Amino acid sequence: MSYPQINKMIKRHIFKAVALLWLGSLMGAGLAFLTQVILARQLGAESFGLFSATLAMVTLVAPLAGFGVPQLWLKIFGEEGWKAMRWFKPSFAFVSISTTSVLLSLFLWAFLGAHDHMTRILIFIVSFYVLGQVSVELVSSKLQLEERYMNYTAWQFLPHFARFILVTILAFGFSSWTTPQNIALIYAFVAVVATVASFFQLWQMSKGRFALIGHGEKKVSKLQIPDTKLVFQNAWPFGLAAFFHLIYFQSDIIFLKYMTGDEAAGVYNVAFTVMVAVYLIPGVLYQKFLLPKLHRWAHHEREKFYKVYRLGNLAMLVLGIIAMLLVWLLSDWAVPLLFGNEYTKAIALLNILAISAPIIFVAFSAGATLVTQEHMKRKVQYMGLVAIINVGLNLILIPFYSAIGAAVATVISNLILLMLYYFGANKHVFYFDEK
To answer: What is the pLDDT of residues 72-119, one digit of tens each?
Structure first.
């Protein structure tokens, strides 16, 4: 077979893989979006805000459960290949300890925090959502390393599908039972089922039964097994990165609930839900397809690594501008049509948040390079700084401008994040490549 034929086959394989990931993610995000639409219409702005803020609160601390182990696997296998199997046993021990700690902390917060009765119940029930998040992420990393994109897509899709089906049945078959408490029970039930379903895959992985791609044939070597302390030392940057990301990405909903009220949180969450769907475009490409490859290229194919970075910045800027313009064009009629006239205030919020589209798209490209090699700790520092800035801006702006202030705080935070990522990538990651 000639080189052009081989090159053509590789390009076709890449296209099919990305197309599959995008299709699965679009379907999953589409169902997640429709679930939010149904909840917004059935619950009303106040109850929808109450549930959304509670879910955001639990989601915020969910990364502290696995605390970066799924992302650590992608990194260490990119560096060590088959030798990284030695990390499995201590990784599972560390995940068990960290997840148990987070669940206990949430239970204590539910019963000891200054909440009303319904919020207390919701926090307790939705806490089990953490189990599903950890399980899905761990198995997802395994499937990414195996480049089993069909299985990966299905695994990511099924929780969204299950929640959508159950919420739809409840909302249209038993509308009088559609309460925040029953919706929380659905989310908790799906999370527990996902946890049980993950056991077999993770058990196989713990026994070394998986097919790593990109590192040749399986090689079993006797190397020193790290302890849980070493897992923590290597995983914490990834765990904190996810935690900081959620602070500046969706903590606005929580601030609005406690500083303005459940209704404001519900209206804001409508605009936030739309932007989550928009961010799916760069998210699929960088987090689900390119990330394992970037770790490999950063160590073994620097020229390709740099080329993907430069091309990615340009492509993401163009796509981000298009996404922003489309949101501006469609928001006036799409929000009332989908969510109802009760949420027309979300249009202004959405138009503000849309400014973040080109910013976040390029940030995905620049930020992805900082996950590789020894740069992750620097990325965490950038994210931590932006998280602090975002919290400060929310505390300053929300009392005066309510949800508008939260939206402005988000855009400013995203812009600062992009500037830091771009500086870090060019100053530290590609310094020698540009010379």
So the answer is: 887 787 777 777 777 788 888 898 999 999 999 999 998 887 778 898
* Interhelix angle 291-300/129-145, nearest 10 degrees: 50
- Exposure b/e, 309-320, CB count within 10 A at least 16 = b: beebbeebeebb
Which two three-digit tokens encode residue 17? Answer: 């893989």
Count of CB atoms within 10 A of residue 16's CB?
12
Encode pLDDT of 336-375 as tens digits: 998 988 999 999 999 999 999 999 999 988 888 887 767 7
Residue 117: count other Cβ atoms within 10 Å of its Cβ. 7
Look at residues 309, 418, 281 and name the one whose alpha carbon lies nearest to residue 372.
Answer: 309
Q: What pLDDT is attached to residue 148?
A: 76
In whole angstroms, what is the distance from residue 396 CA to residue 134 CA?
34
Largest CA distance in the chain: 70
Q: Name residue 407's amino acid.
A: A
Residue with tokens 């100053």: 427
**Contact (Cβ atoms closer than 8 angstroms) between residue 22 and residue 153:** no
Give the chain's length: 435
Torsional class of 216: left (φ above 0), alpha (ψ -120 to 50), beta (otherwise): left
